[in-house]
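Sample 1 of the test manifest.
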Amino acid sequence: YVLYKGTRRSALDNIPGPVSRSFLLGNMGELMQNQAGLTEFSWKEKYGDVIKFKAPFGVDRFLISDPKALQHILQTSGYRWSKFRERRELSRLTSGRGLLYADGNAHKRQRKVMLPGFGTPEAKNFLPLFRSCAASMCRRWSDILDSSEGQAHVFNIPEWVSRATLDAIGQAAFDYDFGATDDHENELGKVYQNMFLNAFGAPSTGLLFSLELSRFLPISLFEFFNDHSPSPRIVGLRTVTRVANGVAKQLISTKADALLEGKGKKDIMSLLVKANLGENPKAQLSEEEMLAQMRVLILAGHETTSNTLSWLLYELVKDLELQQKLRVEIRAAEKVAASRGDSELGIHDLEGMVLLSATVKELLRFHPVALHLFRTANEDDVLPLSTPITTTTGEVLKELPIPKGTRTVLSIPTYNRNKKIFGEDADTFNVYRWLESDHIKRDVSLGPFANLATFSGGIRSCIGWRFAVIELQAFTVELLSNFQFFATPKIEKIRREAALVMVPTIEGELENGSQLPLRVTFAPKGE
Ligand code: HEM
């Protein structure tokens, strides 16, 4: 295979990219073991938006952030580009054969069954629920502050927001209260805490190498290996599966009973159960798929939002002026709501808060917690390019012929920092870019939200992006309305840890899990 790959000539041979220092690992170490995004940002500066690098055994792979090329792979080509087989196996391990794993017709069927639960009205209806989950966490913090010296306390933010967002997804998706914010012994809350970091954080050279090798194994052998491996990382994932499947089975049977008694609810799980009780086989899921969807929703909808929230607070303690301006905007909206006789902000209030909206956009641009999408071309293809590539032999390519089987890594953070789209200051966190009419160019439309790649794009784009945006807004309002956040000395040592999602950790303290210690005090009322 290596000889075949090494000697075959391809139109892609002369695409510029970094030199590989290791035949066995290629450039994979630099890409996957460094802090999130750092390697690809520096490659982009040197080589552009399409970069050839080496995977193990000297095999070529491509890192792509060119807008038109991404648009083609994610939107135009449907199922002609598939996820890497070994990455799908990671999805099976973390969430079963649900939406994240499924491909082709199976994916189409599953997505069709799930979509009705994720529209704009459904997401907007969840605002009070998101607010109440955020408020529960704020009440716990207030109790702690009340009994702390000087009414100030250092909270490890990810630990708390992870539980609150688990409760939010539990109630929105399953109408089920995991009680994770109040009960730190909650089993589901415990197994999901630091799951990504424990399973995928700081991947060793051996791990990266064996993941690459595994793609040559027959899939049944690979699955058998993972179902029996004694590796602590995989044992941890199997524990999550056992605990989550137990809760899912219980939930499905409760919901089926409720539906039969005519007491069905509108949560997503109830919709799935209802579809399965119907006659149409094209709108049904197998029992395995049904259990998997619950894990998909917890996995895809919980750590993503909670880590994004942690990164928001990280930015706000570095820019106290922005924190204060947001609080002023919240107070003004609270006043308007109060004058209407409402004690809480509604969806229209949130929609009218321009600084909040700009901050959420900038947060999702600058800290996209899902970093990479891995796609293989299932057939020969031609990629359109926004920026022509000058090859190492001086040829200028306006489009890129792609042979079947080409493996690509689509870089979300690099696209999100494209200077031609987001402005010359794309490498800095600047919420005001969203408030200036000329700052952002929208020549190519990519993702479902703010033209970002953060939620991917096309037929496999994030199904829960509307939930995520409203949940982020609701939590931001609740947190800033109640508290002020300040940096602690550890802020200088925060790392953007790449663990499938981007997790804050402290330099040299990876074994302590996700960490962002911030000093919290009550926010003055009446600003
Ligand atoms: C800031 C928060 C979020 C981010 C950054 C995010 C990002 C993403 C990305 C990049 C994908 C594509 C993954 C791939 O193709 O491999 C994805 C897929 C998905 N997301 Fe999200 N997501 C977020 C929140 C949510 C929420 C709240 C939910 C559920 C309520 C959710 C449910 C899903 C599902 C089910 C998929 C699979 C879609 C499919 O393959 O058809 N996500 N998300």
